[in-house]
Design brief:
The complex is a heterodimer. Chain A has 38 helices and 39 strands. Chain A is an alpha/beta fold. A 7-stranded antiparallel sheet of chain A has the order 14-13-10-11-12-15-16, sandwiched between helices. The radius of gyration of chain A is 28 Å and the shape is globular. By secondary structure, chain B is of the alpha/beta class. Chain B folds into 2 domains: about 5-155, Carbamoyl-phosphate synthase small subunit, N-terminal domain (Glucose Oxidase, domain 1); about 165-380, Rossmann fold (3-Layer(aba) Sandwich), CATH 3.40.50.880. Chain B has helices at about 40-45, 100-105, 120-130, 145-155, 165, 195-200, 215-220, 240-250, 260-270, 360-370, 375-380, and strands at about 5-10, 15-25, 30-35, 55-60, 60-65, 80-85, 85-90, 110-115, 130-135, 170-175, 180-185, 205-210, 225-230, 255-260, 275-290, 295-305, 315, 320-325, 335-340, 345. In chain B, strands 10, 11, 12, 13, 14, 15, 16, 17, 18, 19 and 20 form an 11-stranded mixed sheet that branches. The model of chain B has no long low-confidence stretch (mean pLDDT about 95). The chains are: A alpha/beta, B alpha/beta. Chain A: GO terms for molecular function: ATP binding; carbamoyl-phosphate synthase (ammonia) activity; carbamoyl-phosphate synthase (glutamine-hydrolyzing) activity; metal ion binding. Chain A: It comes from Prauserella isguenensis.
């Protein structure tokens, strides 16, 4: 069946901001879809609020709308664009929910838009748990016993029938939000009521526990001709009970016989057909009882999912690309496999390697959050590794994590750990559980004990035992022979692990020299979908060690073009996300165009950079010094390496710069010495002094006494942090001596090798973020962003506006002069990000990062200038002047002198607080501070600030209210500033309620308001209230409040007071403003929404107006 | 790979030698080296008679993970001449596992080799074709030139008549499940256990006959249909089976052939066969049905193929016939259908084991073919 001729224009819905459970994988799939649809000659419109995506680059669609992914805004886009069809299966749950809403409210019918890729009935059959279970049973499959409940009464009755423990799963939430396993009645009451709340249809499934069963997934695709292929099977290392996003997963399945695997395949295909996914991809999850092999179907995603991205990268089979082709009418046998070029997409991939994915967590960012792994996903990213065996791939994946532990034996065991204590630890799943498996075995537990405690399959346990045995052999051998070393490498041991086992080798470098002397190097194999049956045309490589010293490497010679290696950013984590991948992808595109061979090195399966189409060659490898060096070696053997780019992937590759350079690798762009100028406090201080630029007073201390002395000197509050960090890890604002003492006690544990920095904290300053490009001669100011929250909130968590809304021309000139001085002083070649604080007309330099920042994509989109592309060309020798001439950069002017009528873009951060609970089941605090906590961002763009801000809020949290009740409770120091915006809200018709103290001030200023009680009212507090007044937390939880304005009280330590109010707001999903500036911005936004002038304009039109205007 | 490894070598006809460790039995074995790309089903593969005299390379790197059970054998023994893997499992894991794969290989005296870079080996076979080879370990491991000479002296697969080596010594009957609707004579050229099972499940009483059976033997069974099984070797050598097929076609008895059986039917219809460079051995191979255009993912194991064009029609001594199926990867003939006589065959394995069950309905097609010639012999006999 060839392409349909009745579709000429498709609207693709993206997935919005990166959140836990819905990450960069949907940029990867959406980008592929847009590419394919345009190749097929269709007009493509796109809506996605996430500016850090490749898909929202203007060249990927005909009309790109950076607008909130909500039914209201999608309708506006449909009205403006009038597409024939809507493709929503590549944008995760967000896009799918949006499509369902547009079907239900009649918009699709009204505009004659056909939903392609999946029909509504199929979506509902797949996602409605009861319908789905009925279908599974109809086709002869088995399911866990369960019932769908709509009230707590129904829940209680079901639990009485099924018996505890049970699993609770709310319907229509993503990433398993709100779901979990409960063992007791109390847990059941709490989680089920929360689940009913989280579910948009007030529905939860109560299910028989299959805890401890083996867990599997199948990725399937079906075409309009009813052909089905299984793309990949995935086996979870962690047994049922841990969300698959939080599990270590392995492809292909390792412990199934053909009989069981084919049974799974048959049931999967039957379910897919019965659910009626007409074309495209789907993911089905299974559980198998390890005792008797009973197999039950758990759930299905009738769309491209996180696992699809993993399966695509694991097999080389581009699911999203093929799904897009299937959606417009092609069949699997009509689509050719890009990798072999001769086989069709109906050829099921077969692997001759093993793929391991390891999740990356960020519990350290959310103190108090329960780190137990459950059926609610909590990880923020993942790394994937490919090896020729499970141990090899596991070793690579573990060292890709970039945590303190880089594989077994690289950190000391917890003090006093015994086999028994470790087995105990294994009984509840936590991050790092695999380390406990190894430790338990090493400390004497039997494999059976480990299996019983952890539920991990004996085969996996034996593989870890094997790694342990090889490790012991390495440790105990009198001499490390080439043979043993090769065997250790083949079992996945890194040089660092071997160094940890053999201290006399003088560390990682010593192991490497020994390896080099003995000629022990990896070979590079190819991901080819067919286990070498056909020749591969795409150079998608991974390293492997073979026992045979003469093993073959498959990197083909490339004598024609100089190569540039781009080091990616590794697993997504808070502080280093998709924004860096964006810059890496841009570099690859620009360098290919400029005649280089672009070589990508990365280990994050969710990204566009690890798509084999993005670069000329892809190495799916950990971003450690050892692994990168081997890639460089392989590339040097096959041609000329002109340079390695470390500046675009965030702190990960930047941290390798010096060592790579020392090893003779040509690092291009800002040289490692210059990077040190910016990162080393002393050196950077000299740069600032030399240029006459003020910085907040600071000092460096290695002890509490030292820190105290500095703080006394410069005055509290102070900002304290360890040196060399990204995303403000370990950073705190400290208001007094005892908090300082407390901080030092904790922080010095974090990084003993680095001192603590103590900075003067500029209260109430305006924070400014700048991205610039410098070639040694000329500075190109990419963009100047003004933070909406005051300094002290991490720039990654703060909303910001571009162009800056309150800065004057002289401020901007000062920013330009300072940035140029810093760029010159540091010695930047390429990108530079500087953060300033403006207080009392003094522009303080807070910090400078000689690399691409997380705002590069936002700036690029807001100003229509491809900053990362330009940066990669500057790094490889072009001048800004030349780039202006070639049209890469504007002929004149830059982001510092945007026209007055330029559109205003607002970036807003998206925070994951509602994902985490304390072990007692409470929410974690949603307060913002100097430590970054957001997982992603959205952009709102319009002609005026208010509208742009309103859009940014709609895109990130759901819309600002236009009527209803606002609750206000603010710190004393903020009361004066908040009178005006709150009065404005009252004038707009909002009902205002406040705590006693705040209410008093508001009433005195003529704002009518009601009084509510705080949950825990201090008897001594001046704000004692009528005990009959409603309790604010209950009021919020009952839905009586539409917006919260709550700035933190007090000024020391963990600011607890507003904690329950804020968590209640997060639970209800209502806007919760925690800063004065945020409140003013929200009022602007609400006014704009009430005026009703919130329209949509495509990025292409906005950028055209920018270009014409400048 | 363990610390105490016994060296072993895989020696190819062209002189290339891959070193590794002994796996399974020690000693020496010779055969044609072929690679199999299935990621599951090594037990079924090893016990598939079609692998007679072949040294099988598993492209999946970790083998033996689910051990060896008592249910999944496709015949009475392991048939492969030798076994080449990268990483053998140490601890099998499956609730059905009875023992380890290495134990089973040793017990059945199958010489294997592990720790080989199987991907490099597979690429070599892909580029240079399936070729003669030997696995040598223990006492068998001798000087390189001696091993190469031994390989060079071994017989080639082209021209090999192997069906006689794998066929059943005497006839046996697999009773129908439930009511007996039909009786089928299955010519055992290397039949797999799952084939009679699939037939029996459809109410067919299966009479499995030795490869040397005559037309009279077939008729004596009172067969409603004749089945030609899979099997090893060069189809060109099978003049007896080909003549038997012609006799069946002449009598218009419904006939269904699988794999080797497809090649035999093709030759009976006048088509030629050829040795493929490295064959199809895997469980992921897409086959297109020319009539419907639909794709089935199939299990395959063949080193020879029929000549013919996808969808092509041709005249045969038994009327018009057509190439009903072809491989989506390379256009290889994957099935035949006679227009004027009730006969069809496929090059792949609808009985799977190992492999996907997409093509399973072909057994129903065979039933339909017999149904259209009612009343059946089995029913007549009962009446």
């Amino acid at each position: 069946m060839p392409k349909r001729t009745d579709i000429e224009h498709v609207l693709v819905i993206g997935s919005g901001p990166i959140v836990i459970g819905q990450a960069a994988e949907f940029d990867y799939s959406g980008t592929q879809a847009c590419r394919v649809l345009r190749q097929e000659g269709l007009r493509v419109s796109l809506i996605n609020s996430n500016p850090a995506t490749i898909m929202t680059d203007p060249e990927f669609a005909d009309s790109t709308y950076i607008e909130p992914v909500t039914p209201e805004f999608v309708e506006k886009v449909i009205a403006a664009e009038r597409p024939d069809a809507l493709l929503a299966t590549l944008g995760g749950q967000t896009a799918l929910n949006c499509a369902v809403a547009l079907h239900e409210n009649g918009v699709l019918e009204k505009y004659g838009v056909e939903l392609i890729g999946a029909d509504i009935d199929a979506i509902q059959r797949g996602e409605d748990r009861q319908k789905f279970k009925d279908i599974v049973r109809q086709v002869g499959g088995d399911v866990p016993r369960s019932a769908v409940c709509h009230s707590m009464a129904e829940v209680r009755q079901t639990v009485a029938e099924v018996g505890l423990p049970v699993v609770i799963r709310p319907s229509f939430t993503m990433g398993g939000l709100g779901s979990g396993m409960v063992h007791t009645e109390e847990e059941m009451e709490r989680l089920a009521s929360l689940g009913l709340e989280e579910s948009p249809v007030t529905e939860v499934l109560i299910e028989e526990s299959v805890l401890g069963w083996k867990e599997y997934e199948l990725e399937l695709m079906r075409d309009g001709h009813d052909n089905v292929v299984v793309v990949c099977s995935i086996e979870n290392f962690d047994a049922m009970g841990v969300h698959t996003g939080d599990s270590i997963t392995v492809a292909p399945s390792m412990t199934l016989t053909d009989r069981e695997y084919q049974h799974m395949r048959d049931v999967g295909i039957d379910v897919l057909r019965a659910v009626g996914v007409e074309t495209g991809g789907c993911n089905i999850q299974f559980a198998i009882n390890p005792v008797d092999g009973r197999m039950v179907v758990i759930e299905m995603n009738p769309r491209v999912s996180r696992s699809s991205a993993l399966a695509s990268k694991a097999t080389g089979f581009p699911i999203a690309k093929i799904a897009a082709r299937l959606a417009i009418g092609y069949t699997l046998d009509e689509i050719s496999n890009d990798i072999t070029g001769e086989t069709p997409a109906s050829f099921e991939p077969t692997l001759d390697y093993v793929v391991v994915k390891v999740p990356r967590f960020a519990f350290e960012k959310f103190p108090g959050a329960d780190p137990e792994l459950t059926t609610t996903m909590k990880s923020v990213g993942e790394a994937m590794a490919i090896g020729r065996s499970f141990p090899e791939a596991l070793g690579k994946a573990m060292r890709s994590m970039e945590t303190k532990r880089v594989g077994f034996w690289t950190r000391p065991d917890p003090e006093g750990a015994t086999a028994e204590s470790t087995l105990d630890e294994l009984r509840t799943p936590h991050d790092g559980r695999i380390y406990a498996v190894e430790r338990a075995l090493r400390l004497g537990a039997t494999p059976e004990q480990v299996q019983r405690a952890s539920g991990v399959d004996p085969w996996f346990i034996d593989q870890i035992a094997l790694i342990g045995e090889v490790g012991a052999e390495v440790r105990d051998a009198p001499v490390l022979s080439g043979d043993l070393l090769r065997r250790a490498k083949r079992t996945g041991l890194s040089d660092r692990q071997i160094a940890a086992l053999r201290p006399e080798l003088a560390g990682e470098d010593g192991v490497r020299s020994l390896r080099q002397r003995l000629g022990v190097h990896p070979v590079f194999k190819t991901v080819d979908t067919c286990a070498a049956e056909f020749a591969a045309r795409t150079p998608y490589h991974y390293s492997a060690y073979e026992a045979d010293p003469g093993a073959e490497t498959e990197v083909s010679p490339q004598p024609d073009k100089p190569k540039v290696l781009i080091l990616g950013s590794g697993p997504n984590r808070i502080g280093q996300g998709i924004e860096f991948d964006y810059s890496c992808v841009h570099a690859a595109l620009a360098l290919r165009e400029a005649g280089f061979e672009a070589v990508m090195v990365n280990c994050n399966p969710e990204t566009v950079s690890t798509d084999y189409d993005t670069s000329d060659r892809l190495y799916f490898e950990p971003l450690t010094f050892e692994d990168v060096l081997e890639v460089v070696r392989a590339e040097q053997e096959s041609g000329t390496v002109a340079g390695v780019i470390v500046q675009l992937g965030g702190q990960t590759p930047l941290g390798l710069a010096q060592r790579l350079s020392d090893a003779g690798v040509p690092v291009v762009g800002t040289p490692p010495e210059a990077i040190n100028h910016a990162e080393d406090r002393g050196a950077f201080g000299d740069v600032l002094t030399g240029a006459g630029l003020p910085a907040p007073k600071y000092g460096t201390a290695t002890s509490f006494e030292g820190a105290k002395q500095i703080a006394d000197e410069i005055g509290y509050p102070v900002l304290v942090r360890p040196s060399y960090v990204l995303g403000g890890r370990g950073m705190e604002i400290v208001y007094d001596e005892s908090s300082l003492e407390n901080y030092i006690a904790r922080a010095t544990e974090v990084t003993p090798e680095h001192p603590v920095l103590v900075d003067r904290f500029l209260d109430d300053a305006i924070e400014i973020d700048v991205d610039a490009l410098y070639d040694g001669e000329e500075l190109f100011l990419g963009g100047v962003m003004e933070h909406i929250e005051e300094a002290g909130v991490h720039s990654g968590d703060s909303a910001c506006a571009l162009p800056p809304i309150t800065l004057g021309r002289t401020d901007l000139e000062q920013v330009r002069r300072s940035t140029e001085a810093i760029a010159r002083g540091v010695g930047v070649r390429g990108l530079l990000n500087v953060q300033y604080a403006l207080k009392d007309d003094v522009l303080y330099v807070l910090e400078a990062n000689p690399r691409a920042s997380r705002t590069v994509p936002f700036v690029s989109k807001a100003t229509a200038v491809p900053l990362a592309k330009a940066a990669s060309l500057v790094m490889t020798g072009s001048s800004i002047k030349a780039l202006r001439g070639r049209g890469v950069l504007p002929a004149e002017g830059d982001g510092g002198d945007l026209p007055v009528d330029a559109p205003v873009a607002v970036k807003e951060a998206v925070l994951p607080f509602h994902r985490f609970r304390t072990p007692e089941g409470h929410g974690v605090d949603s307060l913002l501070g100097p430590e970054m906590k957001s997982t992603g961002e959205v952009m709102g763009v319009d002609t005026a600030f208010g509208t742009a801000f309103a859009k940014s809020q709609s895109g990130s949290y759901g819309s600002l209210p236009t009527s209803g009740t606002v609750f206000v409770s603010v710190a004393n120091r903020d009361k004066r500033s908040l009178v005006f915006p709150v009065k404005r809200l009252a004038d707009l018709g909002f009902e205002v309620v406040a705590t006693a103290g705040t209410a008093e001030v508001l009433r005195r200023n003529g704002v009518p308001c009601g009084v509510v009680r705080k949950q825990h009212e201090d008897a001594d507090a001046p704000e004692t209230t009528d005990p009959d007044a409603p309790n604010i937390v209950d009021l919020i939880l009952d839905g009586g409040v539409d917006m919260v304005i709550n700035t933190p009280y007090g000024n020391s330590g963990p600011r607890i007071d507003g904690y329950e109010i804020r968590t209640a707001a997060v639970t209800r999903g209502i806007p919760c403003v925690t800063t004065v500036q945020g409140a003013s911005a929200a009022v602007h936004g609400i006014e704009a929404m009430i005026r009703g002038d919130v329209g949509v304009r495509s990025l292409q039109r906005l950028q055209a107006s920018l270009r014409d205007g400048s | 790979m363990s610390a105490t490894r016994t060296p072993a070598a895989l020696v190819l006809e062209d002189g290339r030698i891959f070193r590794g460790s002994a796996y399974g039995a020690r000693g020496r074995t010779l055969g044609e080296v072929v690679f199999c790309t299935g990621m599951t089903g090594y037990q079924e593969t090893l016990t598939d008679p079609s692998y007679r005299r072949q040294i099988v390379v598993q492209t999946a790197p970790q083998i033996g993970n689910t051990g060896w059970n008592d249910e999944d054998d496709e015949s009475s023994r392991i048939w492969v001449a030798g076994y080449v893997v990268r990483d053998p499992a140490r601890t099998p894991s499956s609730w059905r596992s009875k023992r380890g794969l290495d134990e089973e290989l040793a017990a059945q005296d199958v010489v294997g080799i592990s720790d080989v870079d199987t991907r490099t080996l597979t690429r070599h076979i892909r580029e240079h074709g399936a070729m003669r080879a030997g696995v040598f370990s223990g006492d068998g491991l001798v000087a390189d030139d001696e091993m190469v000479a031994a390989v060079a002296a071994s017989p080639a697969m082209a021209g090999a008549d192997l069906a006689g080596e794998v066929t059943t010594a005497r006839p046996y009957v697999v009773p129908a499940v439930g009511e007996t609707r039909f009786r089928v004579a299955a010519l055992d050229l290397g039949i797999k256990a799952n084939t009679p099972r699939q037939l029996a499940r459809r109410g067919i009483e299966v009479h499995v006959l030795p490869a040397t059976s005559t037309v009279d033997d077939l008729l004596a069974v009172g067969a409603d249909g004749v089945f030609l099984s899979n099997g090893p070797g060069d189809p060109e050598t099978q003049s007896h089976a080909i003549e038997l097929t012609k006799a069946t076609l002449q009598r218009e008895i419904p006939l269904f052939g699988i794999c080797f059986g497809n090649q035999i039917l093709g030759r009976a219809l006048g088509l030629g066969t050829y040795k493929m460079r490295y064959g199809h051995r895997g469980i992921n191979i897409p086959v297109i049905d020319a009539a419907t255009g639909r794709v089935a993912i199939t299990a395959q194991n063949h080193g020879f193929a029929l000549e013919g064009e996808p969808g092509g029609r041709f005249d045969s001594p038994f009327g018009t016939a057509e190439v009903s199926h072809h491989c989506a990867n390379d256009g290889t003939v994957e099935g035949l259908r006679c227009v004027d006589v009730p006969a069809f065959s496929v090059q792949y394995h609808p009985e799977a084991a190992a492999g996907p069950h997409d093509a399973n309905p072909l057994f129903d097609d065979f039933v339909s073919l017999m149904q259209n010639r009612r009343p059946s012999t089995a029913q007549e006999a009962r009446q």
